[in-house]
Prior knowledge:
Layout: E1 4-5, E2 14-15, E3 21-28, E4 34-41, E5 51-59, E6 66-73
Amino acid sequence: MQIWRMRPDGTAQEQVTHDDYANWFAHPSPDGKWLAFISFDKHVKGHPPNKDVMLRLMPAAGGEPRVLVKLFGGQGTMNVPSWSSDSKHLAFVSYRLLKP
């Protein structure tokens, strides 16, 4: 799974990520400068919960993603727009499973 972008009318389709990870949940910053997303190991199918993932950030104009944090999460880590209105902060959820 890679991240793509396109115009609202479906034209100008462009692949944004080109790596060996399964990339999901792309969130552009309000100022349009950054793209934050979750990356799973390439062997993970879909976007399940309860996996080791990375929260990564890259310039919206293109460039190499960098890892902000490695965490335990997955589905639910960043499903909704998570940027602060000034594009300086990003919220996410990390969790651990506890045995009863």
